Amino acid sequence: MLLTISQATFLLAIFIGNVSAQTYLEGIYCGKVSCYGVLEVERDAPKGEISKSYRRLAKKFHPDMHRGVEAKKEAEEKFKLIATAYEILKDEESRADYDYMLDNPEKIYSHYYRYYRRHVTPKVDVRIVVAVTITIISAVQYFSASQRYNSAITYLSTVPKYRLKALDMAKKLGKFDTSKKSRRRTKNEMKEEEDMIIRQVLEDNIDIRGGYAKPKVTDVLWIQLLLLPVNIVLYIAWYLRWVWKFNIKKMEYGKEEKLYLIRKRLKMTQIAFDALEEEKRETFLKQELWIEEKYQQWFTKREEDMKKQLAENARYKACRRYMKNHGAGRITFDDS
User: Fold this and answer.
1) Reduced to 3 states, what is the DSSP secondary structure of residue 268?
2) Tens digits of pLDDT across the chain (336 residues)
């Protein structure tokens, strides 16, 4: 069947209308109308032209510029649509998503995903998230270190050895109030004052190392990150100095360098090594454990001593007899 020119034109208009209707999705962007059409601009209009058109239309359809209930209501709806279109087209990423919808009308689910991903997901700068996370970690880190340090001081204040030394030191420093007015206090008040003075003396004079050391602001993550470039430069300078002095010039190790090598041989962290008693570290120095051969001898001897101690231990002997008689993975009940 042949169609006349007018019939063909009519069918083409219906087809274009259906494609156009499918291009604009209800519930996202400007609904079933074109955002460019709402702002009365072409699709390739620059950002400045879009802003200029928005200001003109917003002024024209502002509800305060109209009178009457129906006129105000109609202007308010138009004003909201204009604001929505401007919010979409003023942002380059949002405008790119909208243009993608116009160019790919068949990808309906993709358009909904792109729209809600941009409008529902909170728009938070990644740098802010990282900064807040580091701040929280730093605060928790400092608070945990303070808790450990306070628990260590509290424990030491109950140990007679440290408590008596702290009392003697406090008396020499005149920290106790011996006036007549102080004698009127109750035993509990005097006990609380004594505990507080002992705690203060311990904090001022005792050197706690390791995991229970007094917290420092420089140890928290924020400060460590800020000082990272400086620490890298210092490490490179230290490493070059080490190579020059001990690898090239063959100089003798000092005490600090010997302790560093011993710590490396023992595979201990700096905090754990600092937590050792001074006598223990001096013993390591006397044994010359920074030398590989002597460290291996010391390590072998220590392993043998540990095996001897286990062999002489009554519980270890009983466990070995049980494993020999009953084997592994067997459960028995002793009624005796």
Assistant:
1) coil
2) 444 444 443 343 333 334 444 456 777 888 888 999 999 999 999 999 999 999 999 898 888 888 888 888 888 999 999 999 999 899 888 899 889 888 888 888 888 888 887 766 666 677 888 999 999 999 999 999 999 999 988 888 888 888 888 888 888 877 766 555 555 667 787 788 888 888 888 888 887 777 788 888 888 999 999 999 999 999 999 999 999 999 999 999 999 999 999 999 998 888 788 878 889 999 999 999 999 999 999 999 989 888 888 777 777 667 667 666 665 554 444 444
Comparing CA positions, the residue from 189, 212, 199, 198 lying closest to residue 167 is 198
* H-helix or E-strand spanning residue 173: none
CB count, 10 Å around CB of 202?
Answer: 22
User: Distance between CA atoms of 6 and 108, rounded to whole angstroms?
Assistant: 33
Check if the beta carbon of residue 21 is closer than 8 Å to that of residue 69.
no
- How far is 252 from 258, CA to CA, in rounded Å? 10
0.70 cut: is pTM over it?
no
